[in-house]
Design the sequence.
């Protein structure tokens, strides 16, 4: 019998107000029921926000180094339970075990980094223009943060949001994706065990149109931190604008690798395989486009297709598996629809292009790694996010044309260039319109001490990771102290 799980509100595990639940299934084996989780609605959200408001009033008064100590302890638990959590993540989300362990490691790294911020959270002191006057800008917490997270990094991305929010003195209402509720539950349990007081972190499970929408709209929420699709992100931004709330959005990507004619071709192929098919292409940084100099295009394609054909599909816990399942039946259908769109536009499918249904694969959501050739920049498969193991290969005459093609999309998250020419590398760094650029490395693999995010429709300018996440998780307060003993009227008396 499947284990039943609950929401976490005000320090207590409680069922949804409706009493309804939803099933969490293994995407590699639909017969594997992981558990049943509460299907929350606006009533549960309201209760969670009220608990967060009460928790915030207490937590904001706790010194930041002590707040960070809770995050440090949680990180130690993540490290101790890394293998267990990685295996559960593979079962719940589908990514191969090595990638799942990397996901957990990213949470560990974030805990260690944010622990240090508990003794920094630097403000700014600048000279005042009047005598015997002191001025300083300090950080203060925002209040109640809604953390709405996706399924593709079910532990790393929640830690990107929750750990800095807590260190900065905020309270959190956490709404994870309905495809990965178990890892969210375990993360909350770990933080509670680390000593986080009740009400400071609240977990509301459920679907976006029910729990997520109510959370974004709730008047008691001061900041919405959202990672997910561009379509949903636009709706979140519109609601927050109408309500005057702070909002941080990390949305879609149509990332690109440029391969120049002087590139180390085997290295570029390695990067394209990892960028295109790692996590079954289900990363916002996945390299779904490769633009190759025409001088090496045929050689690159031959090697790339041959490598894609050798990739082995299967459950992520199997040591022989290279590519796991996609997350659900809906996403499997979407990926195949884009394959049909690509064919109708005139692109050639050199390998893959269909679901994999033989043997045990029939019980899961598997799609064969797919490579398109003869792709033109205006084709939909070259411009729209597919979020699956599908890579469009385009040709360019030179670096300038490659950059022009690379920038011809509404997104701007991650880019890469393979070249041994330092001039080309720096020209690409300067001209590629993305928030992240790699040189001689693939488009995926961010480190927690640096800003993460993109431009244009990838986000709204805020960055997670590193010190920059503090700017969305805090408000600036400027403090003036006048010890002159007389009225001083700023610019009037200068």
Sequence:
């Amino acid at each position: 019998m499947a284990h039943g799980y609950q929401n976490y509100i005000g320090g207590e595990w409680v069922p949804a107000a409706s009493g309804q639940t939803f099933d969490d299934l293994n995407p590699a084996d639909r017969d594997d029921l992981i558990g049943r989780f509460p299907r929350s609605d606006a009533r549960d959200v309201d209760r969670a926000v009220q608990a967060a408001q009460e928790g915030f009033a207490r937590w904001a008064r706790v010194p930041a180094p002590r707040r960070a100590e809770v995050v440090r302890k949680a990180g130690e638990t993540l490290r101790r339970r890394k293998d267990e959590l990685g295996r559960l993540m593979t079962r719940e989300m589908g990514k191969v075990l090595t990638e799942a362990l990397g996901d957990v490691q990213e949470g560990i790294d974030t805990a260690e980094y944010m622990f240090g911020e508990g003794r920094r959270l630097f403000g700014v002191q600048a000279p005042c223009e009047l005598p015997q006057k002191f001025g300083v800008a300090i950080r203060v917490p925002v209040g109640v943060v809604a953390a709405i997270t996706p399924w593709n990094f079910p532990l790393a991305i929640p830690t990107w949001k929750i750990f800095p929010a807590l260190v900065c003195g905020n309270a959190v209402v956490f709404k994870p994706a309905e495809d990965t509720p178990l890892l969210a539950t375990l993360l909350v349990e770990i933080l509670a065990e680390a000593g986080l007081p009740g009400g400071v972190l609240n977990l509301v499970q459920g679907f976006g149109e029910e729990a997520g929408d109510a959370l974004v709209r709730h008047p008691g929420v001061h900041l919405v931190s959202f990672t997910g699709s561009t379509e949903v992100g636009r709706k979140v931004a519109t609601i927050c604008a109408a309500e005057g709330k702070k909002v941080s959005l990390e949305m879609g990507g149509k990332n690109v690798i440029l391969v120049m004619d002087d590139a180390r071709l085997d290295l570029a192929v390695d990067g394209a395989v990892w960028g295109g098919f790692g996590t079954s292409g289900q990363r916002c940084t996945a390299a779904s486009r490769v633009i190759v100099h025409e001088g090496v295009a045929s050689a690159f394609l031959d090697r790339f297709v041959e490598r894609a054909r050798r990739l082995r599909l299967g459950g992520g816990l199997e040591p022989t598996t290279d590519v796991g399942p996609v997350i659900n039946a809906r996403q499997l259908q979407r990926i195949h629809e884009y394959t049909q769109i690509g064919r109708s536009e005139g692109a050639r499918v050199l390998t893959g292009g269909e679901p994999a249904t033989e043997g045990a694969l029939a019980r899961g959501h598997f799609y064969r790694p797919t490579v398109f050739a003869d792709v033109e920049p205006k084709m939909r498969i070259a411009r729209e996010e597919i979020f699956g193991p599908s890579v469009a290969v385009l040709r360019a005459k030179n670096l300038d044309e490659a950059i022009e093609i690379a920038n011809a999309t509404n997104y701007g998250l991650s880019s890469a260039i393979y070249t041994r020419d330092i001039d080309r590398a720096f020209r690409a760094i300067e001209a590629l319109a993305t928030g992240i650029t790699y040189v001689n490395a693939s488009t995926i693999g961010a480190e927690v001490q640096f800003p993460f995010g993109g431009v244009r429709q990838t986000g709204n300018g805020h960055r997670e990771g590193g010190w920059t996440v503090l700017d969305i998780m805090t408000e600036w307060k400027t403090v003036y102290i006048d010890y002159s003993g007389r009225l001083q009227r700023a610019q009037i008396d200068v």
